[in-house]
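STRUCTURE REQUEST FORM
Protein name: VOC family protein
Source organism: Pinibacter soli
Requested output: structure tokens
Priority: standard
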Amino acid sequence: MPGPAFTTYGLTHIALAVKNVQQSVDFYEKVFGACVMHSTPKWAQVQTPGANDIIVFEENKELAGKNNCGIMHFGFRLTNANEIKKVTDVLSTVNAPIVEQGEFVPGEPFVYFKDPDGYTVEVWYESDELKIES
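Status: completed
Returned output:
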């Protein structure tokens, strides 16, 4: 079996449907010491100290807390931004539908695609600098 076409840090984040974004941020800040990286009124991205994990809270009252359908997507973090092209090449060869592709900020590309079961999977690159909103 051939090795992987690209290298990731593995599964590093989860996006959860929540009823109230700020309530979830407050809870995870209190319980885990999570720090806000990016946020809008409808979503927030937090990271726990000393880890490479990311938790995304996406406001969706209908799905919040529901077993089997409250997860919005899961992602794999690239070790090199330039490998995003390898990702899209592989997706093309396996006919995986691309949902969205672009850059969160310059130099930090992403691609969302559907797996065979219809789950949305993300592969993205993010610099190693901790980005905390003040």
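Reviewer notes: The beta strands are 8-18, 35-39, 43-47, 54-59, 71-78, 98-103, 109-114, 120-124. The mean pLDDT is 86.
Form closed.
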